[in-house]
Amino acid sequence: EELMALFPRAPRMSSRDFTEAEIKNLKCVAEVTLEEGDLLYIPRGYVHQARSSSECHSLHVTISTGQKNTWGDLLLKAIPRAIET
Fold it and tell me: How is residue 16 annotated by DSSP?
């Protein structure tokens, strides 16, 4: 069993690991308990913190996709090209 806490942010790139003190300053928007075999999709921009009880082992894997693939990134490429032509 693993408890997953979610905190909203809006980074364009993956963030570094946060300290416990930094996590405490973020507002938790959801806590989800995952059981063996569960899968949780976390949208881009949400910091997550996983905790398991000391009585069991737990492993979670984070796969990050879509980095630098926002509307802002598109405009940063499109506007200079539009001005050149």
Answer: P
Which residues, in sequence order, are bridge partners of residue 64?
none
Quickly count: other Cβ atoms within 10 Å of residue 83's Cβ.
7
Task: Report the C-alpha gap between 7 and 26 in whole angstroms.
Answer: 6
Give the Cα separation of 55 and 75 in Å (integer): 50
First to last CA, the chain: 57
- Per residue in 46-64, pLDDT (tens digit) is 788 888 878 888 787 777 6
The label of the residue with tokens 């796969």 reads 63
pTM tops 0.85: no
For 4, 44, 82, 83, 84, the CA distances from 9, given in Å and listed in that order, are 16, 9, 31, 32, 34
